[in-house]
């Protein structure tokens, strides 16, 4: 909506001084939030931060590169169990988290290979098959999944005498900020532009010198890396893992978050993650109806507001900025 | 040898269910280019309607008829109330697929809310325990019924598509939409009919599957995915391909389950999907222009 006058300005994270103030204010609010609210709010917020990372990654793949994927739960499970096993072996958590992301990313490249030949609906089926195959492998092989009792992941001891909830909140907040910044940087780098070019017109992109093979695979690898990190953080947050957390429904939840938040919008991913976590919390007494709420929202959004929640917010901002002109 | 025949017969029975599911998916894909992710949930909804009507003491024929009609009605309503407005707003093919996913989520939770989440046994006129012995190969009454019903349904469907005016209109619509419109075919009504037909075939499969498994809101998820695999194996835009793919998948699965391991049985379908899509994306009998980039 703004007129960008130079390349330097285009690369800037925040362009207007007032936006800087707003963002700083928001960050301060988020920092103070767990100190003034009851414990469950901080708990829910930490969960939103964890989901944000995965949704951001999937938005890079689905929203920016235009490659549809239903296999999120598979990558999530791979990341989570990699982290779980490594931390049980005594690997320090930063290394374990990195490994979780990398292993997940390697599987992302493997699943990405079909994407070189397949498009749209066909790719959706391959990734869906991958997600369910991973789930079945974890269900059938107990040495991988830790058996009937699940895999106990040793938790971190909070430093500086923080309470567990407070520590979880700030820990995941840090990761969420880190990955949000990373995503902004990716989309304004050559890599992100290549993703967008592939989405908009792959033949033209190839003709302009964007290597389709390379950037499609990178897109899968990066998004799966995000999923792997999310899996590791999820395991650390919950303290145990079992295969039933990673069913097809989990893939759908993350996919729904991407669509509802808004395709190709970083802010949209944050809103989408908050939506899929908050709706089940708010409607906790009507648990059966949660998928129906997701379904109705998807249908309404796709028909009336294809840009998602972010698009609505964007239009509202535009309206108030230009008021009274239209 | 008897073992082999035994597995093959069992495979044919499950395969014919996959074939019915695949037929519905292929019918919708080839006429509207939409992968119907709600197919399994429409089927589940139909089976639950039959279950509820049997619960209040209606005879089987009536309850099953109502189930088929309700399944078809859901699909037709979805077409007119959601897909048509979406197409008016120029929704992309991908977002239409996501719309079916939305319908699936809604149906899933409605079924869970009204039907309950606990698995329930489904009463059925044919028994699973009564068996016939044909030259050493054992086949249950229910499997025989499934084979018969699937054969009858696909035969009637074949006659409908190939020998009637309505079928001709369906084929014309799926082949070239603008041309069909200029020839005076009411394409919107024809497409709605295709959606209804597809749901109906799915519900038949669901009704015969429910007594084999237990009835719960997710009992169709796996058969639905297998149906997908079967449709891809045969070629997504080929109706005979869907039947062939379903039967092959059923038999292959039974043989893998019998000779390799039961745990491997379920993963096989997804390995088949991935392998077929990598080697021959248009499937065994499908013909489609594949764009290479």
TrEMBL record, chain A:
Keyword Acetylation set for record: no
GO CC entries: plasma membrane
Record's keyword annotation contains Cell inner membrane: no
Pfam families reported for this sequence: BPD_transp_2
UniProt keyword list: Cell membrane, Membrane, Transmembrane, Transmembrane helix
Membrane topology category: Multi-pass membrane protein
TM regions (residue ranges): 21-37, 43-61, 68-87, 93-113, 120-139, 169-187, 217-240, 252-278, 290-310
Superkingdom of origin organism: Bacteria
Name assigned to this protein: Branched-chain amino acid ABC transporter permease
Organism: Candidatus Desulfacyla euxinica
Automatic annotation (TrEMBL), chain B:
Cross-referenced InterPro entries: ABC_transp_permease, BCAA_transport_permease
Membrane-traversing stretches: 6-29, 41-60, 66-85, 97-116, 136-161, 190-215, 227-252, 259-279
Subcellular location: Cell membrane
Topology of this chain in the membrane: Multi-pass membrane protein
Keywords: Amino-acid transport, Cell membrane, Membrane, Transmembrane, Transmembrane helix, Transport
Sequence similarity: Belongs to the binding-protein-dependent transport system permease family. LivHM subfamily.
Name of this protein: Branched-chain amino acid ABC transporter permease
């Amino acid at each position: 909506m703004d007129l960008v006058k130079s390349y330097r300005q285009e690369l800037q994270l925040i362009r207007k001084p007032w936006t800087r103030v707003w963002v700083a204010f928001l960050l301060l609010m988020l920092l103070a939030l767990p100190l003034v609210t009851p414990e469950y709010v901080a708990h829910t917020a930490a969960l939103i931060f964890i989901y944000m990372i995965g949704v951001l990654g999937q938005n890079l793949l689905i929203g920016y590169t235009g490659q549809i994927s239903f296999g999120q739960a598979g990558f999530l499970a791979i990341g989570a169990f990699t982290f779980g096993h490594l931390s049980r072996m005594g690997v320090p958590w930063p290394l374990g988290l990195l490994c979780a992301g990398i292993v997940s990313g390697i599987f992302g490249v493997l699943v990405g290979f079909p994407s070189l030949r397949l498009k749209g609906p066909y790719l959706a089926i391959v990734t869906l098959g991958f997600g369910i195959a991973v789930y079945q492998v974890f269900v059938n092989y107990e040495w991988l999944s830790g058996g009937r009792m699940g895999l106990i992941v040793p938790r971190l001891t909070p430093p500086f005498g923080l309470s567990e909830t407070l520590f979880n909140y700030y820990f995941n907040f840090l990761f969420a900020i880190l990955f949000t910044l990373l995503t902004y940087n990716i989309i304004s780098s050559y890599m992100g532009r290549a993703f967008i070019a592939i989405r908009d017109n792959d033949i033209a992109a190839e003709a302009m010198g964007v290597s389709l093979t390379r950037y499609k695979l990178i897109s899968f690898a990066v998004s799966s890396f995000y999923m792997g990190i999310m899996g590791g953080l999820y395991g650390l947050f919950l303290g145990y893992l079992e295969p039933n957390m990673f069913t097809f429904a989990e893939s759908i939840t993350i996919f729904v978050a991407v669509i509802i938040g808004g395709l190709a919008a970083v802010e949209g991913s944050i809103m989408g993650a908050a939506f899929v976590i908050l709706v089940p919390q708010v409607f906790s007494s009507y648990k059966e109806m949660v998928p129906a709420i997701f379904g109705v929202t998807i249908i309404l959004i796709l028909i009336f507001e294809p840009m998602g929640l972010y698009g609505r917010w964007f239009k509202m901002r535009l309206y108030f900025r230009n008021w009274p002109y239209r | 040898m008897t073992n082999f025949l035994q597995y093959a017969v069992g495979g044919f029975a499950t395969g014919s269910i996959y074939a019915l599911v695949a037929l519905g998916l292929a019918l919708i894909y080839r006429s509207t280019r939409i992968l119907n992710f709600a197919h399994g949930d429409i089927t589940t909804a139909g089976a639950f309607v039959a279950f509820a009507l049997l619960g209040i003491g209606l005879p089987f024929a009536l309850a099953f008829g109502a189930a088929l009609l309700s399944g078809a009605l859901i699909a037709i309503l979805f077409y007119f109330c959601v897909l048509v407005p979406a197409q008016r707003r120029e929704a992309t093919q991908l977002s239409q697929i996501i719309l079916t996913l939305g319908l699936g989520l809604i149906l899933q939770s409605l079924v869970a809310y009204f039907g309950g989440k606990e698995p329930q046994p489904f009463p059925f006129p044919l028994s699973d325990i009564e068996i016939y012995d044909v030259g050493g190969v054992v086949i249950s009454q229910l499997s025989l019924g499934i084979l018969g019903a699937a054969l009858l349904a696909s035969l009637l469907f074949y006659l409908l598509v190939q020998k009637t005016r309505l079928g001709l209109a369906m084929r014309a619509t799926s082949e070239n939409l603008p041309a069909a419109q200029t020839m005076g075919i009411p394409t919107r009504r024809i497409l709605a009919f295709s959606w209804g037909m597809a749901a109906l075939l799915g519900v038949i499969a669901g009704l015969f599957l429910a007594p084999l498994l237990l009835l719960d809101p997710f009992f169709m998820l796996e058969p639905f995915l297998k149906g997908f695999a079967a449709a891809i194996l045969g070629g997504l835009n080929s109706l005979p391909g869907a039947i062939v793919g379903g039967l092959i998948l059923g038999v292959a699965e039974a043989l893998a389950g019998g000779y390799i391991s039961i745990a491997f049985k379920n993963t096989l379908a997804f390995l088949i999907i991935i392998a077929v899509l990598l080697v021959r994306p248009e499937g065994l009998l499908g013909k489609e222009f594949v764009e290479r980039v």
